[in-house]
Model the fold of this input.
Amino acid sequence: AQKITQTQPGMFVQEKEAVTLDCTYDTSDPSYGLFWYKQPSSGEMIFLIYQGSYDQQNATEGRYSLNFQKARKSANLVISASQLGDSAMYFCAMRVGLQGAQKLVFGQGTRLTINP
Amino acid sequence: GAVVSQHPSRVICKSGTSVKIECRSLDFQATTMFWYRQFPKQSLMLMATSNEGSKATYEQGVEKDKFLINHASLTLSTLTVTSAHPEDSSFYICSARPPQGSGRSTDTQYFGPGTRLTVL
Done:
């Protein structure tokens, strides 16, 4: 079964600290993609970062980096120097399926709260 | 700026009426768009994949006669909730995937801002 698991329902972090949001996945497909999206209270889904299963290096986008450990099937999101505006729901997602029939499977999400 | 728009952002309707939600791709021509539903404090669940010029592909358990999807152009997909009932109240969000040659990664889905539907 293709599944994304986020085991942290909520995380509380002090402003300016780094935070790691956990994500593990399960798939038998040799080719897949992993995503992180941020959903603030307004509801929009904001794309943060992408990691392809064949990418040799961990993806980075500004303060976001993805700690991709293929053997452990984990794709944790690391946010450095957290800011108050980082408070939101964070969803890990996996692209599954063949070209032309691809879809995203989402985890249950982690609510991140940044404290001043 | 926004890559995908949705209209309306919020709708309240009476039970038994039909509601149409529009999803527009603003930055590229999207041959494939997706419709998701999100209940409060839950994750996004894919309802259907909308393909331009052909029938939508519905996920298991989603009633195709209740949730009508029309992808009539490369920039517009619509979701019509027919004979809506209170249990259909939810946050509906669409996404679009860029085609090859658009200058954007074809791996990434770009989401609209969502539509909050309340059925009384």
Summary: Chain A has a mean pLDDT of 94. The two ends of chain A are 41 Å apart (CA to CA). The longest strand of chain A covers residues 88-96. Chain A touches chain B at residues 33, 35, 37, 42-47, 50, 52, 91, 95, 101-109 (CB under 8 Å).
